[in-house]
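Researcher: Predict the fold of DNA repair protein XRCC2.
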Amino acid sequence: MTESGAQLFSRLEARHNVKDIEPRLFPKDGGPEDGEMVELYGTEGTGKTELLYHLLCRCVLPKEAGGLEVDVVFVDTDYGLDMLRLVSILDSRLNTAQSGSSSSAGSDETVLRSCLSRLLVIHCSSSAQLLLTLHFLENSLSSRPALALLLIDSISAFYWVDRCEGGGSIAKQEERLSKCAELLGRLLRDYRLSVCATCHAIRRSNDGQASSDSDRSYLCRAWQRLVTHRLLLSREATSMKQGSKEQRSQQVFTVLCSSSSSSSSSKIKSYRSSLFCVTDGGVEFI
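Model: Structure tokens for DNA repair protein XRCC2 follow.
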């Protein structure tokens, strides 16, 4: 059964907005609008996946706990998704919300299960599987108006494999990622879905730190054109935090956000810098 234009408009209007997913990350105008792409970029160990968990939890948590209460798809290309860690963060956020509220919204287990029911996890072991996954999402989005965010960890996982398989041809090396970017572009445009994806920086200096040009994107142009919000993550020097009995070290991360709205004809960007640390209960902004 084909749907009418009015039905299509009604369905797309029903998709939730995640602009308020994390006001402390994005410039004053807010986070990603419907149909915009966020790239989390940085070297290994700069908190990209933890920040992705934070955004995921913000989406699936109930509104009473400060969440958006929307569905999320998590595409795991690194096979690094730690469900125990994710459940621990969700449980910590729910306990914090419950301790500050006079009313109870149900048992902890029931609410936690409700949060996890809003999450669909898909594992991909090649760029070909990622391409098929995006095709699957395109075919199923019309029946899932509650789905508001697609997370990919990471979009650069198959970069070196694709380069090897592509031989000496740049077009062949970038072919699959370009096709993935084309599909993602349709999801952003036609279904007003928001997408967040991590990307590993690959350029380092001899001392193991990010080199001066490590913040330059190396992925194909088709991908770069999709990105409207870029979060550049790095590690700060370890600070000392005064504990109850003794001082303990605390790793601090910096995230610099550069944003340009996809709906704006002008290319003027806005910026915001934030600091956060990672605790047992997840990301905490400083």
